[in-house]
Description:
mainly alpha; 4 helices; single chain; 111 residues; 91% helix
Amino acid sequence: xxxxxxxxxxxxxxxxxxxxxxxxxxxxxxxxxxxxxxxxxxxxxxxxxxxxxxxxxxxxxxxxxxxxxxxxxxxxxxxxxxxxxxxxxxxxxxxxxxxxxxxxxxxxxxx
Length: 111
């Protein structure tokens, strides 16, 4: 029993080390969006209408830029390290959120 607990502890430590040293914001979001996209595409593709199948194809082709984002992210992590890449990606996410809020305020003020 002690051996099993020790193996679980080692696996847990290795996983935490991997998450700290290799996982970035865009990588995690990309993997999540790919999983959701694959599930949605499968559900739509098994639908009866042609519009559902077309939507599934759009989702599948929408995965191409996500794969490119993963490749670029992995290159930057390899070159600069996950900590610096996460910092830059956090700034990018904050800028997008600020632009979203400013655009929402602009659209609400037009009414």
